[in-house]
UniProtKB/TrEMBL annotation, chains A, B:
A GO term for molecular function: DNA binding
Source species of the chain: Aquimarina algicola
Keyword Transcription: yes
Pfam family name, one: TetR_C_13
Listed InterPro entries: Homeodomain-like_sf, HTH_TetR, Tet_transcr_reg_TetR-rel_C_sf, TetR_C
DNA-binding stretch(es), residue numbering of this chain: 29-48
Keyword Transcription belongs to the record: yes
Annotated keywords: DNA-binding, Transcription, Transcription regulation
Name of this chain's protein: TetR/AcrR family transcriptional regulator
Residue ranges of domain HTH tetR-type in the record: 6-66
DNA sequence: TTAAATTTGAAACGTTCATTTCATTTAAAA
DNA sequence: TTTTAAATGAAATGAACGTTTCAAATTTAA
């Protein structure tokens, strides 16, 4: 009976993510989204609600993609040390391939609106909790295998690593010198060994 | 002959800084600035040019204030270790006193617009260069005094510390647990000793 | 083939945006 | 006291904002 969606939802989210990532939430207009997605205004509102709810869907899509890419690499690592190094190397790779110097979309939106918009605060909190939990998991394993020291608890190291990743992403906005970034990563990780 | 400014320029910049800091550049409207400064629209345009030039003046004011506060504390420190610890402790203090969870204004505006607005890119680049240079200076002294190790160059450690400060500020937006933050700082600094 | 429901397109909604205009007020130098 | 130019206030500018409306087109199941 009803006509069904003709556009590819993921493709639309992908294109919306590009423009949101580049310009930020407040810097992106509905017209930008119309242009970026090649969708009609009404279709956007019909299918995604409002600008804010669309942004939240874009964020989820962005994070799911990120998680997927990381998991794909992480299964290849043989121990905790390799896992952590893989995570940081992927971030360095993202920085270097980020021609627009946009930084991390999740870091950016936390900076832009976590203190203003409860739904974004909640999203970034969940993101933080998940990231710290999975880092803690890896650190724990590394400590049990005696690859990492026990000077701090796994949680404390996880918070440190989470914080360092955000710092790395912020630093990478202006500095894309690969040697600098790799030294930076090795300095960050040294405390674990 | 002419009437002179009746408002206190620094007071206006201070009030403008509060609202820009809270809402970000794109999130702050001219009406917000009129309300926050109690100045007339025309007076703002007469005295500060445009929204963007006003923002740049606010940023300079914000940074000058920050520099001043840090210098005031830094002169009290007896060696490089104390200097670095003072810097990080002041950041932790700022985070804990930041009831609105706004984060650092300079980190925020880099995230929001460094990739879009050349004047902001240039401002944040200069800020980054200055911060790294002064950190490098302190690390150098610490290395000469054999308080800090020489595993990495002073510049590499300075970049690491700069990056860590940004991570700390981003982490502090959602996490204001003082114990967590102090553990975080001590983990960050451990690599130097 | 018909009926149903949703997508789509284009236009319009009222609001807010940054900025400008201009007449009035003000205060300092002549 | 007069002159002068900037500060001020209030209103208006046109453009852009997010969102809604609604008729037309479309496609699927009955």
């Amino acid at each position: 009976m009803p006509k069904s969606e003709t556009f590819n939802r993921n493709e639309v989210l992908q294109n919306a993510a590009l423009i949101f990532h580049k310009k930020g939430y407040n810097g992106t207009s509905m017209q930008d989204l119309v242009d970026a997605t090649s969708l009609n205004r009404s279709s956007i509102y019909n299918s995604f609600g409002s600008k804010l709810t669309m942004f939240l869907k874009v964020l989820s899509y962005y994070q799911t993609n990120l998680d997927h890419n990381f998991s794909k690499e992480l299964v290849k690592s043989y121990n905790a040390k390799e896992s952590i190094e893989t995570i940081f190397n992927l971030h360095v790779e993202e920085i270097i391939n980020d021609d627009d110097r946009k930084g991390c979309m999740i870091v950016n939106c936390k900076s832009e609106m976590a203190n203003q918009e409860p739904s974004i605060k909640s999203f970034t909190e969940k993101n933080q909790d998940k990231m710290i939990a999975s880092l803690e998991d890896i650190v724990s394993k590394g400590q049990m295998e005696k690859i990492f020291n026990q000077d701090q608890t796994a949680y404390q190291y996880a918070l440190y690593l989470f914080s360092s990743i955000q710092g790395l992403r912020m630093t990478g906005i202006l500095n894309k010198n690969e040697e600098d970034l790799q030294h930076l990563v090795s300095t960050i990780l040294k405390v674990l060994y």
